[in-house]
Write a structure and sequence with these properties.
The protein is mostly helical. It contains six helices and no strands. The radius of gyration is 24 Å and the shape is elongated. The termini are far apart.
Length: about 140
């Protein structure tokens, strides 16, 4: 009986030491993670927050820049996918309306030049052969 109690105490002490080390001494630090690494329900929450911001300010280009973090998919596709997941997860009717509103706006949306400029990598020319034209040595 004493051996069994000693074994259980050793397991509990090891578990406590492992948890202390993992949570206090050397916790995991996530750095520079992207939105697409989140679980689908959190991604849907993010798209909903973008839809709420769009509803408040009406800036569709800003909403598109925020959704561009998901990768190369079109904003309307991202919004529609979020709407399907929101319905599956039981979001409120008001949330679904916000997502619908933004998806409808994206159907007729054409990017403004400022939006296109944000998609060009820093230091890269927007069209081939236009870098450093007109400036001589």
């Amino acid at each position: 009986m004493a051996r069994r109690i000693g074994f259980i105490i050793a397991i509990l002490v090891g578990l406590a030491a492992g948890l202390y080390y993992g949570w206090v001494v050397n916790p995991v630090n996530y750095v520079d993670t992207t939105i697409d690494t989140l679980r689908p329900d959190y991604q849907t929450d993010y798209v909903l927050m973008v839809a709420e911001a769009y509803h408040a300010n009406g800036d569709l280009d800003l909403a598109a820049r925020r959704l561009a973090q998901f990768g190369d998919d079109e904003p309307v596709l991202i919004t529609r996918q979020a709407h399907l997941l929101a319905r599956q997860y039981g979001y409120s009717a008001g949330d679904l309306v916000l997502l619908d509103e933004m998806a409808l706006a994206f159907q007729t949306w054409t990017p403004q030049p400022a939006y296109a400029a944000t998609l060009t990598p820093a230091g890269a020319a927007s069209t081939p052969g236009t870098a450093d034209q007109g400036a001589g040595p």
